[in-house]
Amino acid sequence: MDGNTNPERKRMGRKARMAKRAAKPIINPSPPGARGGQYAPLSDDDLVQIFDSAQHLLAHLGMGEVPDRLRSDLIQAGAQDGPNTRILFPKTLVHEAIEQAAKTFTLHGRDPTRSIEVGGDRVYFGTGGAAVQTLDIDTGVYRSSTLADLHDFTRLQDTLDNVAWFTRCCIATDVPDTHDLDINTAYALIKNTTKPIATAFTIPETVAPIVEMFDIAAGGQGAFAARPFAKAHISPIISPMRFGEDAVDVVYECMRHNIPMSCITAAQAGATAPATLAGFLAQSLAETLASLVMVHAIKPGFPMIFSNWPLVIDLRTGAFSGGGGETAILNAASAQLSNWLGLPSGVAASMTDAKALDAQYGMEKGMTSITAALAGGNLIYESSGMTAALLGASFEAFVLDNDMHAHTYRALRGIEVTAETLDVAAISDAVLGDGHFLGSDQTRAAMEHDYVYPAFADRDTPRTWQENGALTAWDRARQRAKEILNSHHPDYLTPDQDAAIRARFNILS
């Protein structure tokens, strides 16, 4: 019998093809850093009007409650004293700050292969938040977040390729001392991941000791400042239109130690900013520009993520709302504004109000994250693992959100139209030959290059799904999260580094 028609060989060939199709693609078809900017909710005239309104607010209303040290630096840079102890920012000063701002820079990972370039139109999903509750992976009930949870979240996300950087996502409520909290938060990050990291400093006094810890991890005194692998999340502006003295003090300390910053404006529509979306964007932009001018006055060109985060409340109750169409379009508009100004943009998405990993969860996360990405948000915060309007964090959510990001990156990548991808000859061959494209060279190549295969979205038939236990996405994500937590125990500190840190600091884990 001819070898090409041997039934056994055909069966073996079919099994090999099926195994190859089921395998993870060799080339990631949707890596982080895809280009955004396809969605523009604001017209060119809208952008100009909002920017002009923001400049008017800064020049004529200005900022209140300015700390003395900052006031001196701002006046020296070109700001002016205004009525009622406010300080005014002339348009020329605002334009100078924008012109001299760092437009792109590297967020370093301790592993250089995990570093990312911020700015332009590249999109990266990461984390954020300060959840005081954790959705328990065993009971499915919320409880107070602990230091052990922070270690677990950090090592879980260390395995998730589509989460590009990690900010502490929860507050260790079992560490009541502020100094110990900041120290142990930083330790959990450097012990369990080599991605770019970020944290918040509760008080400025913890910045220097944490940099000392980072130096130990980086290889010696001054090593961290030479290649900073952590950035600070700071909110120096308190809406509406005033500075927060404690946060400003943290800004000075971070800049002294060469820690890049995300200066976050987090106004809430209808509460600390106008309920009208256009008015909200004008005030929020003005406030974030005030942060940029502050950084410019202290040290022109210092790396700062222009983190203009529009937040929304439910106007019926006053409760913070992390999901919904208003959140989606406001953050997309914020990203568009920041990119139009040429500034590295940071926005927030996937802040679902859902407490469970249910349909509401999927709808709110998917809608807000895809719009922020399509608008070109460089760093999309809060987009992994967060639930319950940022009050909660979930291990299963981290796993599911990692899948969601893959699809979003794939959507951003778009469609490559070339003679090779059109390949009319392959269409002719299939039509005149087998009558289908299954198993063709073109199809096999596209499988590797064009398609994302989700790990947790079920694509089986109803019968197969039932036979396999009728598991929900939450069920499958819980299984996977437990597998990772049981098997992935990284220790990115050498024994000598860990001993040096423990000898110097009160490490509680």
Keywords:
TIM Barrel, single chain, 19 helices, globular
Task: Explain the overall architecture.
The structure is a single chain. With 509 residues, the chain is an alpha/beta fold. It has a domain at 98-413: TIM Barrel, CATH 3.20.20. 46% of the residues lie in helices and 12% in strands. The chain is built from 19 helices and 21 strands. It has helices at 7-22, 44-61, 68-77, 91-100, 147-157, 178-192, 207-218, 223-226, 245-256, 277-298, 325-340, 359-374, 395-413, 419-422, 424-432, 441-449, 462-467, 473-487, 495-504, and strands spanning 80-81, 87-88, 105-107, 116-118, 124-125, 133-135, 142-144, 166-167, 197-199, 230-234, 237-238, 242-243, 261-265, 268-269, 304-308, 311-313, 320-321, 345-348, 379-381, 386-387, 392-394. The strands form six sheets. It has an eight-stranded parallel beta sheet with strand order 5-19-18-15-13-10-9-8. Strands 7-6-21-20 form a four-stranded mixed beta sheet. Helix 3 packs across helix 10 (277-298), helix 12 runs parallel beside helix 13 (395-413) and helix 13 (395-413) packs across helix 18 (473-487). The mean pLDDT is 93.
